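Lab notebook, design round three. We kept the backbone fixed and only want residue identities now. Task for the bench partner: fill in a sequence for the structure below.
Input C-alpha cells:
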C-alpha cells in the first residue's frame, strides 16, 4: 500500500468524516481540520482501528494566521503533504439573495471561497518544493457543488461561493501545472450536517431534489468517497482542471 499524507478540512462531520474513514482504511496518514473540536475528536476516534498517524487541527480555515500555523504543523510532523482536500463549507439558511444580511454574505464567502484559497496558498507553496515526489509533487481536491454550476434559489450566495471555487480550481490547475494537479468534485444532494440536522429543512430540500435525481435516491456522505480515493491515487495523475459531478444524475455539464 502506498501511504500518503492527506489534509482534509471540515473533517468533523459529513463528507470530511466519510473521506477520512475511507482514506484511513486505504492506509493514509491524515491531517484533520475542523472548527468544531468535538466533531473532530469523534472522527479521530472512528479511525482508532487503522494503523495510521493523525494530526488534529482545530480552527477556522478563513483565518490566515490559523491556516499558516496548520500548514507549518503539518510539515513539521509529516515532512511531506501529498494531497490537500478543501472540504469545509457552510450552507446558510434558505433566503432570497437580496434579503441576505451583509454579515451572512461575508461569512459564506469567507468559509467557502477564502478558506480553500488560503489553505491552498500556503500548502501549494510547500508542495511545489517537494522534488522527491515524482512525477506529481502534490494534488489538490476541492469539494465544490453542482450549485456552483446550476445556481439554486434560496441558497444563492452558497451557489456563488461554489462557482468561485470552480473558477479557483481552473485557475490553480493552470498556474500550478505541470507538477501539481487540481480538480474539483461537485456533489449533489447528500444528507450531512450541512442541513443542520433540521428535519424540516432536510424535508424541504429533499422533496425538491428527489424529483430531479435520475438515480432516484438522495446521496450519502459515503457516495463521494470512491471518486475522492481515485483523485488521490496515481490513476488520476493525467487529470487536472476537471470539475466532476457526482450527484445521481442531476447536472449534465
Ligand atoms: N451535503 C451536500 O449535499 C453537499 C452538496 C454539495 C457540496 N457540499 C459541500 O461539501 C462540503 C462538506 O459539507 P458537508 O455536506 O459534509 O457538511 P457538514 O456540515 O456535515 O460538514 C462541514 C464541516 O465543515 C466544518 N466547518 C465549517 N466552517 C468551517 C471553518 N471555517 N473552518 C473549518 N471547518 C469548518 C463544520 O464544522 C463541519 O464539520 C462543503 O464544502 C459543502 O459545501 C455538500
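Proposed sequence:
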Amino acid at each position: 500500500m502506498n501511504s500518503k499524507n492527506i489534509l482534509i478540512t471540515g473533517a468533523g462531520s459529513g463528507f470530511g468524516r466519510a473521506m477520512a474513514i475511507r482514506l484511513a482504511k486505504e492506509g493514509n496518514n491524515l491531517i484533520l481540520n475542523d472548527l468544531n473540536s468535538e466533531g473532530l475528536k469523534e472522527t479521530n476516534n472512528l479511525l482508532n482501528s487503522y494503523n495510521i498517524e493523525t494530526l488534529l487541527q482545530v480552527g477556522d480555515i478563513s483565518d490566515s494566521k490559523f491556516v499558516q500555523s496548520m500548514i507549518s504543523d503539518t510539515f513539521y510532523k509529516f515532512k511531506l503533504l501529498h494531497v490537500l482536500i478543501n472540504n469545509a463549507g457552510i450552507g446558510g439558511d434558505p433566503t432570497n439573495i437580496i434579503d441576505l444580511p451583509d454579515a451572512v454574505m461575508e461569512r459564506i464567502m469567507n468559509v467557502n471561497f477564502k478558506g480553500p484559497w488560503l489553505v491552498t496558498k500556503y500548502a501549494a507553496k510547500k508542495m511545489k518544493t517537494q522534488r522527491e515526489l515524482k512525477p506529481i509533487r502534490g494534488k489538490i481536491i476541492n469539494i465544490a457543488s453542482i450549485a456552483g454550476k446550476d445556481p439554486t434559489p434560496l441558497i444563492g450566495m452558497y451557489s456563488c461561493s461554489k462557482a468561485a471555487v470552480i473558477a479557483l480550481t481552473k485557475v490553480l490547475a493552470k498556474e500550478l501545472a505541470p507538477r501539481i494537479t487540481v480538480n474539483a468534485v461537485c456533489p449533489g444532494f447528500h444528507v450531512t450536517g450541512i442541513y443542520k440536522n433540521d428535519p424540516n429543512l432536510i424535508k424541504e430540500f429533499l422533496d425538491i431534489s428527489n424529483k430531479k435525481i435520475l438515480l432516484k435516491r438522495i446521496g450519502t456522505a459515503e457516495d463521494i468517497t470512491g471518486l475522492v480515493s481515485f483523485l488521490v491515487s496515481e490513476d488520476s495523475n493525467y487529470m487536472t482542471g476537471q470539475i466532476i459531478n457526482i450527484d445521481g444524475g442531476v447536472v449534465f455539464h
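Keep this in mind before ordering anything: The longest strand covers residues 180-187.
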